[in-house]
C-alpha cells in the first residue's frame, strides 16, 4: 500500500466520491442513528424464531432425544447436518480476512468485517449442535480432557468427535481474536465520535485504549499478519477435521478419502454464498452501496462458481470411485443416493450446488444483484442438502438390509434448526446496529488507490 | 470448673417473691400464643390482634414445620429378614426345577431366583423334552403382573376363601340334591394328581361332568390316533432320526400338536458325514416351519387335501380318483417314491384339522414304516374333545346346563360364538372361574377363584407318557390365591393340603420308594414302562370321499398360532407383545396375511410412511354370516387363494389398554376348524403397524448370509461355497482375513479367556426363544408400539429374516453379479427390493458381534465403549454421553439408544413402571438411564460369575460352563458360546469348522461372533 497507484483497468472499489470523512460518517451512521421499522420487524421475527428454538431445545433436554425423528439406524440427522452446515458457513470469514489478506486482495476490505462476524455467529450456532445432540448434554464437559479424580478416566484421542472439539474451539477463538483486533481502530473511531457518555464509556472499553499512534498502527499491522498466518491453516483444518467424522468411519458413503478437500471447498462455497446473502441486504439497508459494489459481488460470485465446480467434481469423483472400487456396498450406497427413496435430496443438492453456480459464467448474471441473491440462497439450500445426503442417506441403508429404514424430522428437529437461524440473525442484526460493519480504517487505507474520485483524478492526468 | 455466674436482668429479681420473677423463671415465653384467639372463629378473624411478634412466631413455626416435613427421607420398602433363611444369600442365585402347564405350553424348566424372586426361566437339562420356548421364557413376567386377581371374588366383590368355599360347597350340594347339571370345563392338565382329584370330585358330585377344552384344538388328530391305535393321545416324533420330512400344513416348529419338536429337527438339519434331512413343506401360510424347509410348495388348504390324497395313492396303491396339475403331480409322485424308499427314516405329518387327513397321515407313516413317529411314547399335552366341548357350549346356551366351573380356559374369549355363550354364562345358576387375570370369562362369572401363577404352585405333569415332572413353588404366593386342586380338595371335604396329596400320590404310585426330594430336585422322573399299542387296520374308502368333498373352490382362511402369543393367555405380557413375529417381523399386532397377487386383485395394500413405518388398509373377512375387520400384511409365500390369521390377539379384558392389540381370530374358529372358507372385502382405513424390519430382501448380498446346497457342500472345495472376500495387496488378491491386510496392531488374546459365539444358520429355526431370554436376562426395556413403529426397538438380539427376490438366494446373487451397466443396475436393484412370490427364507440372529477391531470403540469421544481382555466389546453406561456415533459407525447396527427414560416413566407404562413388574429385573444387570447407548454384553455378568465360582472352588472351568442367555435358551443348539483359549472347547471346533465365517469380513472388524454357512438340501 506504499504507492497510491493502481492500474486504470482495475475498477474502483469505493464509489461515490468519498472522502475520509464521508467514510467515517457513512459507517457510523447505522450505530449513531435510530433503528428503522424494517430493522425492528426483521429483528422481531428473528427473536421469535430464536425463542421457539430455545423452547424446542428445552423440550429436548427435559424429555429426551426421542422427541427428534432419529431411530436405531439413523443416529444422526438434522442435528449433525445443521452442525456441518453452520460450520461450513463459518468458513468464508477467515478465508476473506486471512487468506485474502495474505494475497493482498484489496476488495476484501469492504466485506471482511461482516464476513468474520458471520463466521463467529455461525460457529456459535454450529457449536450448539454437538452439545444438544448428546443423550446427556449435562455431561458434555466429559469430552474435554479435564484432569479428574476418576483414576485413569480420560477422553479418547482416537475419536474424530474429540478432534472436532479442539478444531472448533481453536477456530472460534482465533477468529474472535482476529476479528476484534481488526475492530480496534474502528471502535476507537466510534468512541471518538460518540457523544453520549454511556456509549463513549462502552466503546472506550472495547477499543482497548486505541490511540492511533504510529506504534499502534505498526503493532496492528504485525498482529494482523501473524494472525492471518495462524488462521490460514485453520481454514483448511476445521472442515478437514469435520470431514474426518465421516471419512474415518466404516459406513459406505462416509468412508471416503476425498472428503477433506471436498468439505473445505464446499465450506468456502457455502460461506461465500452466505456472505452474499447478508451483504446484498446490508448494503441496501445500511446504504453501503458505495462500499460494497457490484464489483465486490461479482468477485464473490466468481469464488462461488469456482468452489461450486470443485464440489461438483468431488461429487462426480465419488460416483466414479464407488464404481471403480468394486465394493458392492459402496456402489449401492451411491446408487441409492441418486435413485433411492431420498433421490429428491440428492438431486436438490446436485441442482443447487453443481448446476446453478455454472450460470455465473455469464457476466450479465453474475453482476445482477437480484440474481446473485437468488443463487446465494439456492447454494445455501444445496449445501444443507449435501450434508443431509451424506449423513442420513448413507446411514439409512448401510450394510445389513434388515436395519434399513427411513428418517422423518419432527417439529422439534425443524424448530431447533429454525431457532439457530433466528439466533444467527438476532446476533447479526444486533451487530449491524452496534459495530462498524465495514473495516473503515482499512477502507480509508485504500481510498486513495481505489476510490473512484482519486482514480478519476489520476486518469485525467 | 463449673460456671456459676449469674446474670441479673433487673434489680426486681432480688425480691424473690415477686410474681413477675416467678413467671419469668418458669416460662420462657411469657405471653401465651393467641392461637385460640387467632384460629377460633372465622368471622372474628379480621378483628384479632396478631401483633408483629406473633406473626413472626407463626412464621417461624410454620417454616420450621414445613422444613421438617420436607426433610423426610424417601421410604424404601425393604424389610430385613428377622430370621435369615438358610438358602437365600444376597447376590447368589438359587435354581429350582419346576414345570409349566398353562394348558397351551408345557415344559420342564429351571427357575433362577434371586433374593427369593424368580427372575428367569431356563431349561431343565435333566428333562428329555424340549426346553422353554419364547412364551415360557416370558412367563416369569406374567407372575409380576399387577393386574392379576388378588383374591377370590363374588359378583366382583372381594370375599374370603372360607366364605367362598363354604358358599360354593353348599351350592354344589344343593344342586346335586336337585340333580342340576354342572360341567367342569378345564384345560388339558396332563397332571396325574389333578386328574385324580377331579375324578374324586366327579365321584362325589354325580351331577358334574368333566370336559377338557383346548382353545386351539388338536381333537381331530386325537380322534384319528384313537381310531388307528385305540387310545386318545398324540404320537411323538423324533425328527433327529429323520432323513426326509414331509409336512402338510403342520407348523411343527411352533405349536403343532403342542410343539416341542424343534430340538430334534435341528439335529437332523446340521450336515453330518455329508448327510442332513430333507424337509418338504406344503402349506398355505408362510409358517416358521415352512421358512425352514428345503422345498416349500404353497398350496391353499383344499388343494393340500387333494395332494395329500394323491400321496396316499402313490404310497398305498389305493386309487383315490384325484386329478392334480401335472407339475404338482410329478413332484408328489417323486416325493411318494422317495418316502417309500426312505427305509423308515421318512415321516409324513399334517396339520390339516380334519380327522380323515390325520388318519391318512398316520396310515402313510405306518405304510412307510416310519421310525420317526413313536406310537408308544405318547404326548399327553392336548386332550380336548371338540364334540364334547361343542355339546357343552350348546347346552349352556340352551340352558340345559346349570353350573359351569372353569379352570385354565377362557371360553368367553376363545369360543367362536362367544357372544351368545357369554349371555348364557351370565344367567347360569353357578358359574365359577379359576383365573389369574380378569379374563373375559372371569368378568362374566359369578365366582372368581384367584389362582396362583405356576411359579407359586405345586403340581405334577406327565408331558409324554412315562415322563413325569413336578411343579414346585419358587416364591410364596404374591396374592391371596389358591390352586384349583386345593379348592377342589376343599369342595370334596378333604382335609389334605394339595402338597400332601401330591407327595403321597407320587410316593405311592410313581416313585414307589424312590426319593421324593431327589425327584423334586431334578424336577423330572422318567418311567420306562411301555404298553405297546396295536395298529388297527381301518378301511379308508368313505373317508377318502369325505375328504375330497370338503374341498372348497373359494378363498380359504388358515388360522394359526403365533410364536409370540400362542392362544393369547399371556396377552398382558409386554415382552411378548414387543417380540416381533419371526416372519413378518411385526410386533404388537396380528393381521391377515395375503399373497401379493390376491392383494393386488382385492385392493389390499401395504404402504410405508415417510419415516419408514408400515401401514395397511383393512380387510373385511366374512365367515358365514359374521365378519371381522383385520389389517393386512402382504406375505411372500402365502398360497394364492388363501389367507392367514393368528390366534391370541384381540383380548379385551384383564389386559392393559396399551396391550389390547390385534383382532380375535377365535371369532372365526368355527367347528374348531383352522381352515374356514371366507370372502374378503376392502375397508379403506389406515392401520399402523409396528414392524421392526422394513426391508425384506437380501439385495444379493451373499456374503451376509453365506449358503450353499448339500451337493456343493459335499463335493466342492471350501473356497467355492465359503468364499472369503479378497482385497488387492500389491496387486495380489489377498483374503481380507489375512493379517497382512490388517492395519491394526493385534492384541494378545491368548492368555486368559477369550469368548466366541457361534451361530449355526442350519440349526437356527428362528423361533425367538433367545430374544426373550436376552430380554429377561439383561433388563431390556419394553418401549411400546409407537416407539417400535419409529424403528426404536431395544432388542439386543434380533433375528433378521430375509426373503429371496428370485426363487432362491443363489439366483439373487447371480442376478446381482450379472448386472452390467448403470441402467441395468438401476432396474435390477429396484426389483430386488421386492421378495419373490414364493421365496426362500433365511433367519440370522444378530447381536453385538464383539469385534476385535471395533469401529464403535475408536469413535467414542469419551471412551465409554472399549475392548475387554476377554474379547468383549464393553459398554460403560455411566460414562456414555450419548453422541450415538458408535451406533452410526456400527456396520451391524446392533446398538440401541435410550431415546427416553424407559423406567419409572408413565409414558412407558410397562413392567419397569410398576413396583411389581420391576421385581423381574435381574439385579446383576444395571437398568440403563435416558440418553445412553446399550447393547449386547455377551452376558458378561454370567461369564464373570462362572469365573468367580470356579476361582472359589479352585478348579478349571469346563467347556459348556460359560453360557450366555441366548446360548442357554437355544434348544436347537444353534448358538454355542465358549472360550476359544480352551483347546477342547466346542466353540473352538466350530471356529475351525469349514462352514465358519464372520459377518461382513471385508470391513475388517474381526468379530468374536461367527456364523456357520447355511446348507440347503435342495
Global Rg of chain B = 33 Å
How confident is the prediction overall: mean pLDDT of chain B? Answer: 90
- Structural domain count of chain A: 1
| Weakly predicted, low-confidence segments of chain B | none
Q: What would you give as the CATH superfamily of chain A?
A: Formate dehydrogenase/DMSO reductase domain
Helix content of chain A: over 70%
**H-E string of chain A:** HHHHHHHHHHHHHHHHH
Distance between the termini of chain A: 21 Å
Q: From the 3D structure, determine the CATH topology of the largest domain in chain B.
A: Alpha-Beta Plaits
Which term fits the overall shape of chain A?
Answer: globular
Alpha plus pi helix count of chain A: 17
Structural class of chain A: mainly alpha
Order of strands across the main sheet of chain B = 5-4-16-15-14-6-7
> What is the fold named in CATH at topology level of chain A?
Formate dehydrogenase/DMSO reductase fold
List keywords for this structure.
heterodimer; A: 461 residues; mainly alpha; Formate dehydrogenase/DMSO reductase fold; B: alpha/beta; Rossmann fold; Dimethylsulfoxide Reductase, domain 2; 5 domains; six-stranded mixed beta barrel; 29% helix; 20% strand; globular
What does this structure look like?
- The complex is a heterodimer of chains A (461) and B (1018).
- Chain A has 461 residues and is an all-alpha fold.
- Chain A has a single domain (20-146, 153-452), classed as Formate dehydrogenase/DMSO reductase domain (Formate dehydrogenase/DMSO reductase fold).
- Helix content of chain A is 70%, strand content 0%.
- Chain A has helices at 20-32, 37-63, 78-89, 91-102, 112-132, 160-193, 197-206, 214-247, 259-285, 294-325, 328-339, 343-355, 363-366, 369-396, 411-434, 440-450, 452-460.
- The longest helix of chain A has 34 residues, at 160-193.
- Chain A is globular and about 75 Å long.
- In chain B, a hairpin with a 5-residue loop joins strand 35 (865-867) and strand 36 (873-875).
- Chain B is globular and about 135 Å long.
- In chain B, helix 4 (134-143) runs parallel beside helix 25, helix 6 runs parallel beside helix 17 (484-491) and helix 7 crosses helix 12.
- Chain B has 1018 residues and is α/β, with parallel strands linked by helices.
- Chain B folds into 5 domains: 11-68, no CATH class; 153-217 and 384-513, Rossmann fold, CATH 3.40.50; 220-228 and 235-379, Dimethylsulfoxide Reductase, domain 2, CATH 3.40.228.10; 552-691, Barwin-like endoglucanases, CATH 2.40.40.20; 707-1016, Alpha-Beta Plaits, CATH 3.30.70.20.
- Chain B is built from 33 helices and 42 strands.
- Chain B starts with 18 loop residues before the first helix and ends with a strand.
- Helices cover 29% and strands 20% of the residues of chain B.
- The interface between A and B is large, with 56 and 66 residues.
